[in-house]
Structure formats: structure tokens, C-alpha cells
Amino acid sequence: MRRKLLPIAFSSVVLLCGVFLGVTGTLRLTQTEVSSWVPLQFNKTNIPDDLETVSQVWDILQTEHVDGDKLDSSLLKSKAIEAMIQETKDRHTAYIPPGSLRTPKNLLEGSFEGIGAQVTMDDGFMTIVTPLVGSPAERSGLKPGDVILAIDGIPTDSLTLEEGILLVRGPKGTEVVLTIQSKSDQTTLDISVTRDTVDLQSVFFRWIEPLPSLDGKKLRNILYVQITSFRENTDEQLEVALQELDKADIPSLLLDLQYNPGGLLNETLDIASRFLGDKLILYQEDRDGNRQQLVGDNEKIDPAIPIAVLVNEGSASASEVLASSLQAHNRATIIGRSTYGKGRVSSYRQLADEGTLYYSIARWYSPNGTQIDGDGVTPDILVPISDSSEDDPIFDAGIRHLHSLYAR
What we know:
Number of strands: 22
Oligomer: single chain
């Protein structure tokens, strides 16, 4: 079921953590449907008097300083914007220079060229949020929390997020060398990543090998569904996957949200309502304390079907909305490791220079009032990190849990 929700003039609402590393779409932001995309008009009477001093200093230096003709207004603008953003102390707010972001109508194509990693600035460091499933970044071994220290030998400690991404981007078949500090053991190593086309198909599913029921007459079937992001048609893709449940004798659902960085709020609500019906999914609270409750309106699947949800430190934003809502309503068992902790609703606006400001407009909370921002979702069943790269302990824990339900 398709619907428009939460329209905001000249902006779009997203539940997404970080930005994708691509080619022409350097900072790839997922969006809701936008009816208007025009430069934001400002009323100068809203500018504080203190900032008039900045304008005066610029005018004096540019017209009277002995080297005033050497001042770079574009550089000064970027530095001033960066300073204001840093004062928000919000790692999810960023200025995106002109040309770094595709127009909104081109943001939701099914693929792009790049390394397929999502990054953010964390305590001043360019940090991997999550590699996209099947991407060059994932194949190269990049992990959530890894810090990018250098790009092709250029240190990143003096770069803004957008400057770093501009260095990473490039066409299919070319290589970029990232100097990485591993989150797991703090070691430093160079990783060469070959850029490629990254497919943005967002739902994958398959049946797990069934087991006989206790009476031996029927099969216990587990449908494994992986959602890699919440894109424009993710709910429609999930609907196709969930139809498989009707084919099983005794079905259960293993829903994998590991390394899912988030995406569209509308899609998240639609998907959550497939499991919760018209129950509360989340509420958001803006800067003035105004609270809005959000629900979906899809028909829910059979409530008797057991659900286990897999999460980890790469599960962020919209995936945390889905996991926390199912947890709050006791509709699913959450299994894995604590999630990323991005509990903010983001928006973005085009500016007068055709750059874009990406910023937080509200915090969101789970149905039982739990704040996710900075804390993340704590699983019902915690699974420690495995030392073996061959094992998938979170997946195995999910399978064991669903099988154990039939043994009761």
C-alpha cells in the first residue's frame, strides 16, 4: 500500500545514518517524495545582530586589507558553515557542496558506482557506519566502526566529510586505497578497494532447510528475509517475500536487519505495520517538545507466526525503528548486538548556492518511550562477536531460537 506521509515544505524526511560513498551522487541521501525542490528563501530580519559583525569584517577585509583581493569567499563560506555545524554537536548534520548531490528525482535509482560504504563523522573522524551488502567495501573487509585515517595517502584528519567522500568517489574499475584503523583491535592497515556498480535491491529471501514437526507429519519452515535498506519500493519487495509464508506447513520468520543503515520513514512505517497492524510504531518529538505518534496501515501477517529479528552495530536509524517497535509490542525477539543508536529524524534543504544542508529536525522514541539516539536497541538475546570469520553467530542464534519455540 502506497501513501504520502509527513510532508515538509521544500524538504524531505529520512531515517538514514550517514551518507553513501558513490560516484556522481557523492553524498547519497534517501528521501521521501518531494513536491517542491527550490532554494530556501530567507528573511534577513531573522539573522542575529552578532552575525552582522561577520558581514562587516568581510566587507572591511575585502575592500581595505592590503591582501584583501586574495581572500577566497568560497573557502571562508565553507569554514563558517563548518563552524556552525560543529556547534550543533550533531554528527548527523552536514553541509553538502554544490555538485556533490544529485537532484532529488535521481536519488532513488537502483544502482550506483562506488565502493558501497556508508560513512559519518564520529568525534571528528571519518567512520564507516556500514558497508552495503554485496558491495566492494564489504568484499574488501570494511567493518562498522572502522576509521578511515587516509585516502590514497592523504590524511583525513583535516578534511570535512564531503571532502573525504570526494576523494573516495570514482568510476567502476578504478581503485582507492583506504588506510583503516580497525574498531575491533585498533590495528592500522591499508585496504585497496576496487570501485564497482553497487546494486540497491533491498529485500532478499530464501527458505531455511526445514525440520519435521514434533508429530513428524508436518515440516517446520523458517523463511529468511534480509532487508538491506528502506528504499522507495522496499515494502513492495517485502510483500512478495512474505507471501511465501502461505506455502509452509508451520512457518516462522527470520528477519535480518544487520548492516541496514536505514532509509525512508514512509517505507519503515509500511513495513512495521505488516507485523503490527495499526499499533503505534514510533513517536517523534521536535525542538519545541511537540510530539507526533506515527502508525502504518498495512494488513498484518498472521500474529501466530513467530518472528526473530537479527541486528548488530551496523543496524541504524530506520532499522532501529522497526526493531524497537517489534520489541516494544512483544511481536518479535531481537537477537544480536546493540545497534548503532541513530534516533533522529533528518531532513535536507537546498540552499542559495545550490548546496544542501542535511540536518536533524526531531528525535524519535520507541512505542514504550525508549530513546534510541546514542543508545541503540538492546537485543533480547545478546550474541558476542565471534573470532572466526567463517561463523555467523547471530544468524545461528536466530535459527536456534525459532527452532526452540516449537519444542515448548
